[in-house]
Fold this protein.
Amino acid sequence: MSSREGSRFDILGKIEKERLKRGWSEYTLAQNSSIAQSTISTWYIKKLQPSVASIEHICDGLGISLSQFFSDEKVNDIPKEQQELYDLWSKLTPEQRKNLINFLKSLNK
């Protein structure tokens, strides 16, 4: 039996947890997710559930997949160094991720 059986997944709580894990403000999350900060604030004030499309934008901004968002677990079965890279990656902005990918590609030339 999963820990969520019989209970509802707390989407807003998960967004906040992921945002705070990165040390981001709502404004930073909004910028990285291409969603208006007022929209994000309204979700919390009115206790609204974001649409799937909005959750996808949030996940893109956070640098995680939808399945990672809805999972309670860290990436498993990977070496410690790769987990460290993943943890660092998840804290980068989309622009920083793009720059890192370009840098890594340049190392492989």
Notes: The longest helix spans residues 94-107. The radius of gyration is 15 Å. The chain has one domain: 11-107.
